[in-house]
Amino acid sequence: MNNDDTARALTRSALEHSAVHLLHRAGQCAGDIFGEEMSKQGLTPRQYAVLVSVSENEGVSQTSLVESTGIDRSTLADIVRRMIKKGLLERRRTREDARAYAVRLSQEGRQKLHLAMPLASRADDRLLSALSNEDRQRFIEMLSAIVRSLGMPAVNSSSHAAE
Question: Residue 132: pLDDT above 50?
Fold first, then answer.
């Protein structure tokens, strides 16, 4: 083995044992699978996460959506704005705070979510297909533990939010 082969082997070995790298690669796979499954619905993983979160908390504030989805404030505001234009969400000022918005699903948003949920579930199943049923549940629990330990709210493990 020459020096170049040794360097490649060491780099490959380092990447194969890097949690950050493997999570990044798994995220790429998850995004690709989600995109394939959701192609007819035209939803991104973040848009789907917003629809799920709003459906579970009708009238939620955008600040609460930031907390429940993990999407940063400015990106979330842009996503909500675009989803309102598409007719998926409705937004109104809250009575308690005239500066805050309450976000709700529109009828079209409910229909879109109803059609998207089985597709998101299928994407999850495809992504986790290499694992046994027991390992799948444990993997989800471990990912949630990582998210919780880093101070970010974990996504409800029964929902199928991706990204």
Answer: yes
Cα–Cα distances in angstroms (integers) from residue 119 to residues 17, 83, 132, 151, in the given order:
31, 19, 21, 29
Sequence-distant contacts of 128-133: CB under 8 A, at least 24 apart: none
Instruction: Give 157's contacts (C-beta < 8 A, 6+ positions apart).
Output: 140, 141, 144
Taking the complete model, does pTM exceed 0.85, yes or no? no
Helix or strand (DSSP H, E) at 89? strand 89-93
**How far is it, in rounded angstroms, from Cα 115 to Cα 141?**
27
Pick the CATH number of 22-149 from 3.30.930.10, 3.20.20.450, 1.10.260.40, 1.10.10.10: 1.10.10.10
Residue 130's closest CA among 48, 33, 53, 15? 33
Q: Where are the domains of the chain?
A: 22-149
Residue 156's closest CA among 145, 138, 144?
144
